[in-house]
Amino acid sequence: LREMEEELKYAPLPFRNQMMSKIRAYRRDLSMFQREMRSTDLGLGHGSQSDIKYGIFSTENEQSTNLQSQRVLLLQGTDSLNRASQSIERSHRIAAETDQIGTDIIEELGEQREQLERTKSRV
């Protein structure tokens, strides 16, 4: 979670706001799970051996959670890049259409000018 918060310092503002709320939710969930784990008897008994096992499970779960959060961030980043690429493509299409419309208008104005000049010369 700390690494995610650090990454968010450099993220775009809309993405940052969205992810901060998710990180807060992750923190709440993590606190809830930690409280639940403390209050739950794993049936391992007390002693150094159970503490070692709990430590191993805790480390494995933490690594798994870190990997999952990194995957989520990667997928969200990819999704954001895809949306940006689609937006750029739409912008390029609109620019090309606008350019074509401008060219058509210039040609039409040229024809109208010729008509006006012919009409003026006849008058």
From TrEMBL:
Superkingdom to which the source organism belongs: Eukaryota
Topology versus the membrane: Single-pass type IV membrane protein
SUPFAM superfamilies, A to Z: SNARE fusion complex (SSF58038), t-snare proteins (SSF47661)
Pfam families referenced in this protein's UniProt entry, alphabetically: V-SNARE_C (PF12352)
Keyword list, A-Z: Coiled coil, Membrane, Protein transport, Transmembrane, Transmembrane helix, Transport
GO biological process: Golgi to vacuole transport; intra-Golgi vesicle-mediated transport; macroautophagy; protein transport; regulation of protein localization to plasma membrane; retrograde transport, endosome to Golgi; vesicle fusion with Golgi apparatus
A GO CC term assigned to this protein in UniProt: ER to Golgi transport vesicle membrane
GO MF: SNAP receptor activity; SNARE binding
Subcellular location(s) per record: Membrane
CDD domains: SNARE_Vti1b
Family affiliation: Belongs to the VTI1 family.
UniProt name for this protein: VTI1B protein
Protein species of origin: Sapayoa aenigma
